[in-house]
Amino acid sequence: MSYFEEETYTDTSFDVTVWKKIFRYMKPLKKHFLIGLMAVVMLAFLDVAYPLLNRFAIDGIIEEDRIDRLPIFIGLFGVYVVLIVTMIYTFIIHAGRIQVELAYAIRKDAFHKLQELPFVYYDRTPVGWIMARMTSDSRNLSDILSWGLIDLSWGLLMMVGITIVMFVVNAKLAAITLSVLPLLIYTSIYFRKRILKAFREIRKQNSKITGAFNEGIGGAKTTKTLVLEESNYKEFDRLTSRMKSHSIRAAVFAGLYFPTILFIASIATALVFYFGGLEVTTNELFTVGLLYVFVSYVGQFFEPVMMLATILARFQQAQASAERVLSLIEQDVDITDRPVVIERYGTFDKPLKENWEPLGGDVTFDNVTFKYKKGETVLENFNLEVTRGQSVALVGHTGAGKSTIVNLVCRFYEPTDGQILIDGKPMQDRSIAWLHDKLGYVLQAPHLFSGTIRDNIRYGKLDATDEDVIDAAKMVEADAFIRTFEHGYDTQVGEGGARLSVGQKQLISFARALLADPRILILDEATSSVDTQTEKVIQRAIETVMEGRTTFVIAHRLSTIVNADKILVLEHGKIMEEGTHEALIKQRGLYYKLYTNQFQ
Known about the structure:
- The protein is α/β, with parallel strands linked by helices and 600 residues long.
- Helix content is 62%, strand content 10%.
- The chain contains 20 helices and ten strands.
- The chain has a six-stranded mixed sheet, with helices on both faces.
- Helix 18 (532-546) links the parallel strand 7 and strand 8.
- It is elongated.
């Protein structure tokens, strides 16, 4: 197995450009963020006030022996509890709302982009890579931008509030408490850099493992038939071992980091006890209650410091996720409509169907040259004229250019030079959505979606009635086998149609194409994977579906194209022979050899 190599992303600790783009997703959630922020501000105020409330109990009630003040303390404490519970509830509700809405918005944009991207993107990008962007990376971003931002605000406010109160109460002891801050900052920077590096590697390995899972599950049958289990296991073990080593490294640094911070905090606590104790014994104004306040603040101060370090590290880790998600959302679309075309015809998700002209089916290749970005020229100065309703069969060895021609007709790719005309107008003068709406494509290995047979046929026309679905199935002779199932049209097909035979899936795909009523139909070796008996049924279905439509047939079994209006024999992207079956047989050329060899 070979796995997609992740892009090399920036090692910048904090890339402002990346986060500016991600923070745009926060604009519609401004109200929830502000309410959550207000709750956090109040929480920080209450947390700073808590030691002062207890100081009142120590100095004002216990030390001064004023039991009559106890009801005041109980009342104040009751108000404190009600306020803190209310604020915690408020920020949890709104942070949770931000988390859910943010993940939804990011995934929606990413999925929208996936609908726009052409075939070439899917040719070069593994499914596992895309799935990692849509799931774990999107979740990481929504987590850090919801809970992370609010926790960051709380930590900053706590540190500022505690620092101000400590200096107001006793500047000397406050300075002693904060003397360990430089050591704390240095320690945090040292550890977080190494943790970030380990997590970047973990994210890269996670994408590779996701891709390996996808390939392993999708190619399970091939693995079994070729007895590749041991080889695949070793390769997968190598990937997971790398992720394990990076995970252990990150865990070790994280495990060392927090005890080190606690040790530094303990040094600060010891200094407060020592110098504070001296103050209590020598300074009448410095009470036990004040010492308690400082000891409490030391603990409270270092908690947000550790939290801030953790959150900033999470932001750094999430930056890798942000970069990857943006690389998908901002992926250039190789094939797009011009602005003037979009203005008239709309986009694929907002079509202006009232402006769509009917498609007749005339297709013309005018000096078309095509080459893939990395590879040799497939077609060069290719010319072809197909009139509406005509069936054209494409014959030739692998690499002759058959699939390239139909992919250009479908506008899955754009010509490198020359132009393709539909009904006499350049293809680029109409929208991609207009063309695809009137296009039918039956694949050699038909894909069925998880769901029922009825649902899969109805994908050809989502507003079709049950009667329309059944009529389409009857026309391609699929109704007979469908009714043999216990649940008939409501039978679950399984993932990818796994519960049906290849022939049954093919007939359902024909019914789907017929229901869509396309004007241009592409049949990509539609009978190459079925037995002879099923081929006869499918051949009759093909004739039904082709009637009155411009059809391009990529032929594997030449016996299936003897009735085609035009047969093109291709070699290295050039038409070597052209004509009907009878005419080409009489020529006794390339087609004759291919046909007789296959027959023999």
